[in-house]
Amino acid sequence: MKKLLLVAAAAATFTACQVKYEKTKSGIQYKISKGKGGEKLKAGEIAKFQLTFSIPDNKDTVIKTTVGGLPGYVMVDTSARAQYTFMELMPLLSVGDSITFNLNVDSLKAKGQIQDYDNVLKKGYTLQGKVKILARFKTEQETMEDHKKEMELSKVAEVKAVEDYLAKNNIKGAQKTKNGAYVLVEVPGDQSLKADSGKQASVMYRGKLMKDGKVFDTNMDTSMHHTDPFKMVVGAGMAIPGWDEGITYFGKGGKGKIFIPSALGYGPQGSGPIPPGANLIFEVEIIDVTTPPPPAAPQGMPGMPGGAPQHGGHGH
């Protein structure tokens, strides 16, 4: 019996390895898993989709995904511009269909779709994509309405994820801001010098990804090669919204943590080492709160207030 099971397992593995990919004109290998059927997407329609890109050559490392976050929206394009991109595959799909496809990194470089190889997209590697078509829209208005709904759902889910994190890690006493960040005040600081809107706060910070605790930026040590305080005018849009809301809970000398849902951070686009849709944690210390210096006067035209003096002034 054990031998039969081993033979069956080997046969299943062989069959899985023999899954046949089809190929587009430009050379993309793909295989489609059909949904409920229906009419295929047409040029000019807008497809709503989930997308994941991974590197099978590097332990299936995921480098981008919309799963669990905001879906993507794209207009179906059947022109030559779509060649050797996942856009070329869209006209093959209907709502509910999923597709797995492979892009050769060397081909992407040769076609100018990436500038150069890097630590992720290495020479000889394959970039594997998986797309599922969630819906189709015929007008921009329909698309915008759906996107707005998805944004609201995403915000609710992100705040819930922050609350779940606090509960799981037994973090008590965090206060919820107006828009859904949470602030844990460990040291309130001088309440006569609060970092209120309009004040300039000098802040030391350490930013971490909530998902795994990885530090992506800090001025509290030399690991990121900058140790100067971050100076911001509170409420002036000089920092992400979660900061603008969270910093106001502290006075000079205050210390604590700000737990920020992605919508109040870097959102679905991410930024540098911060992945799209990432919830964040900031350890902060307010080392000073001052009145900001007045903005520099704009350069005026000659002869106008603030400009160069008029010819024939005093003494001539």
UniProtKB/TrEMBL annotation:
Its EC number is 5.2.1.8. It comes from the Bacteria. Residues 198-290 form the PPIase FKBP-type domain. Pfam families: FKBP_C. It catalyses: [protein]-peptidylproline (omega=180) = [protein]-peptidylproline (omega=0). Belongs to the FKBP-type PPIase family. This is Peptidyl-prolyl cis-trans isomerase.
